[in-house]
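[Discussion] Sanity-checking designs against the backbone

I'm trying to build intuition for which residues belong where. Below is a structure token string of 153 positions. I'd appreciate it if someone posts a full sequence so I can compare it with mine line by line.
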């Protein structure tokens, strides 16, 4: 029902929605006045910061992870879309420097564990291991924390 929740939290899922803007509007609808939206999301970085391998990785990754092309926009547009949906006090900050390197280190170690080696198909494991070990694998990706509030009026 409308105005049911104080908080809506979405962790690493909004990029899958078709569209992210529909999710923003639906979350706003179910929030009570003064309610907050908190999102951890993956978005692209501007093209100027990406090498050709990162652009190719974006295309392949988008297809593999089933990310609609309409969700491929930068942080400034992300903030603008939240505001356009009706949110106030919109903030989005990058935490990519605290996420990707640490994730890659964890994933590389995990993929070498005997249990994973036994359970995972060798080609899939090689694909994943190659992806997280490739220099620049995350050059095109930003990882943001976005927060916004439904107005009280």
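Best answer:
Here's mine. Compare freely.
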């Amino acid at each position: 029902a409308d105005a049911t929740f104080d908080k809506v939290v979405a962790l690493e899922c909004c990029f899958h929605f078709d569209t992210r803007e529909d999710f923003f509007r639906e979350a706003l609808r179910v929030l009570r006045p003064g309610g907050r939206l908190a999102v951890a999301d993956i978005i692209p970085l501007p093209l100027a910061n990406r090498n050709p391998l990162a652009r190719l990785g974006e295309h392949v990754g988008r297809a593999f992870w089933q990310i609609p092309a309409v969700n491929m926009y930068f942080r400034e547009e992300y903030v603008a879309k939240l505001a356009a949906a009706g949110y106030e006090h919109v903030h989005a900050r990058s935490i990519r420097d605290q996420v990707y390197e640490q994730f890659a280190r964890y994933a590389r170690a995990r993929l070498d564990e005997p249990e994973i080696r036994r359970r995972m198909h060798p080609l899939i494991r090689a694909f994943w291991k190659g992806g997280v070990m490739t220099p620049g694998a995350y050059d095109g990706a930003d990882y943001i924390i976005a927060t916004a509030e439904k107005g009280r009026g």
